[in-house]
Fold this protein.
Amino acid sequence: MATQSEPCAQAGATTSTASTPEKLSELFNLLDERGEGALSQPQLERAFALLSLPPPTGSTDGSQAGVSLGEFELTVRAALQRKRRTLFASIDKDGDGEWSAEELRASFHAEFESTEQLEKFVTTVMSRLDQDHSGRISYDEWTRGEVLSRADSISSLVRQYQALDCGEDGVVVHHSVRHLRTATQQLGIFVAGAAAGVVSRTATAPAERLKLMYQSGHASGPVLTTVRELVAHGGVRALWRGNVANCLKVAPAKAMKFLLYENVRVMISKNPSRPSFLENIVTGGAVSAVVTAGVHPIDTIKTRMSVLDRASSRTVRAAVAEIVAAEGPRGLLRGLSPALMSSVPFSAINMATFMTTKDMYKDWAQLPPVSAPPITVLLSLSVLSTLAAQLVAYPIFSVKVNIQSGRDAATWPSITRIVRERGVLGLYRGMGLNFLKSAPAVGVTFTAYEYSKPFLGIGA
């Protein structure tokens, strides 16, 4: 095969090198935390999970001494061989030990948006692997392939094809490919995002309520004084008022955010495993727009419950009834425009900064695809990405809160009133509290998500 340019080489490397001796050695040393030179059965099972392989039945020799590096490599390669045999047989519909063009079409038609893309895939695979020009591909011909032989699933074979499909200028041509994640992985991403969102928001709920009160003008004195007044009026639970509605908003929002990000990233990126900063911005912004519009009614309810102390607004049902009675159903969408104006740039910059710097660190530290950076690194990158995003988006976020709380009716009148009453810096009022709330929340969310990915078989 002709020498690939750097983009092509990167696309191939991201899905073809997980089982090389170097990568297996890295994974072995990562799991062998005590440096004992052997892996226990639980450590071996975790290694197989990280490599998306079925659980091993036991160590290679049945001893209690653990599995050495050499045994580990043999065990992994045997498991990969079995998995590839299974993949080959699943495509070989008539069981004659060879792939035909028709069998490739039948097995991969759901992976492509159009017949043209499917036909190009079939033509590429046949031309690359049909070495005896028989019009069919045997198992030996497949395993002798330089790249495609390393695939161990339908989706990974498609990704290997993307690495092979280089234009004359050496740039990878990525088609619109669907279902690059299995249904189980998609569900895992959704659940992990929801759980991370609930945990992070519940932990930072007091700061969230204080921030909203200062943003909307319902509090103006020292923070400790406001906290004492809230506790005196409603007990410690008052600091978590509105958290149920908040979690109802955050759980699906975070779940959909990560699920959409993983899928949209594959669709628009030239190299989905290493999207550029601009591609991350576009992905993060598009995902944020969809998610924000979907959860905005819940966000409005949460905001109204957080800033008002009336007994009539202390439950979700009561808050909804009050808003609809006073403003009609459209009241639940109040502030949607500034919400989009604030959340889209915030999420775009936040996601792009975090994902890009995380990939840069992994490249610098030469981490294998299945490994996440240390927690301290992820938290530091989260702080950086949150600060960068808030500096850009927080003023519009303040306007959104004032509209949702009922203090202002529209975007421009809200801006002029805030600047007139508090000055330009008034647009950043409450940003310190918001940062103290957002930084750990974003850190917990990103860290939980990144560390859950290997266990879900998602990888980099």
